[in-house]
Amino acid sequence: MKKFKLTKLIASSLIVISVLGLNPIAASAEWKQSNTNWWYTEGSSWATGWKEIDGKWYYFNSDGYMAHDTEIDGYKLGSDGSWMQNTVLATVGDEKITKDDLNKVMNQYDNKLKQQYGNDYATNDSIKAQIEKIKKQQLDNLVIQKMLLKKATELKLNPSDAEINTQIDAEISKYKTQYSGQAQYESFLKQNGINEDELKNLIKSKIITNAVEKDIVKNVVVTDEEIKTYYDKNKDTIFTAGAGATVAHILVADEAKAKSLKAKLDAGADFATLAKENSTDPGSKDKGGNLGFVPYNTTKLITEFVSGFKNLKEGEVSEPVKSQYGYHLIKATGLKSAEVIPFDQVKDELKGALLQQKQGAAFNSKIEEWKTGLKVKYN
Questions:
Q1: Rounded to whole angstroms, how far apart are CA atoms 72 and 78?
Q2: CA angle 193-195-196, nearest 5°?
Q3: Contact partners, residue 369, CB within 8 Å, separation at least 6
Q4: What's the gap between Cα 374 and its chain centre?
Q5: pLDDT (tens digit, 9 = 90+) per residue, 214-226?
Q6: CA distance 251 to 296
Q7: Where are the Cell wall-binding repeats (predicted)?
Q8: How far does CA 209 lie from the centroid of its chain?
Q9: Averaged pLDDT for residues 279-291
Q10: For labelling, which of 44, 158, 185, 315 has a CA lying 20 to 30 Å from the CA of 256?
């Protein structure tokens, strides 16, 4: 039985509030001073960009030296280099979400961004938009988290203390197992700028918000009629597979050459022979121009090329097809008709995908509804 992946369905938009990014850090870290300034060691290297140390935020330049008495990314740094103020980014009723809150969440991306873009990633103009997008997403998550925590109390959805403590103990045990002992576990906490009590509070918040999320979507269902309607509407696109042809081509630089070769083919010349003698495509010329079986809905080849062969009959050769690479003569053989995946083979998978989609829509709708009542405000 053919397994069919519903890759074109939109994934659920339920927001999952992560606890922490699990990024190990070197155990040895300390302040050091030269004649001119301070820096902070991280194993055999030094800190760059923003770094939380002992509850305070500092900024280290690309050479490792601490910035002070200046402003970085809108944050004012004092003479000791620490961030001087904690700007409120959003409010949920009377509760505030500050830059400090956001920076603690963003700290989990620090190692990943360093590995990918280098220690000075914070000053890399090419990824500033990407970082800002992550910040916005994480700020939205913090707002939603506070909303869900408030609603949990209002709707009396908080799990019992016993249930929460049992789940917290299980999660802490998983972390300790993952980090192979107490020393690595403590390094993990230090890297994320928290202690174990703060980790437990994060896990507790996640347990409570999950309970509210489940309550929001508890009555969301997908009927058999909805599944069949979606299937019928998309049968010729999402649920159709296999249509295509075995394709060969001859690529030349100019149209006159292409037309000359087409005349020879029309007169009975062998396509594979002409491809080997004339094609400028190094990947296929020695194979007589053969590209193998190509689906009509492929996105791996340029549009002009696909359009040039998708309507050819068995054994037919196209007129010269122009693309950015030159002029193609394309031959199609072994034409295969589309195969529609039977409804019964995709029904269960489709039901799950549609349910996720409806749950995401219900969740987002409820969040927007609650924002007004909870007086959510972004600064």
A1: 11
A2: 140
A3: none
A4: 30
A5: 999 999 999 999 9
A6: 20
A7: 47-66
A8: 22
A9: 96
A10: 315
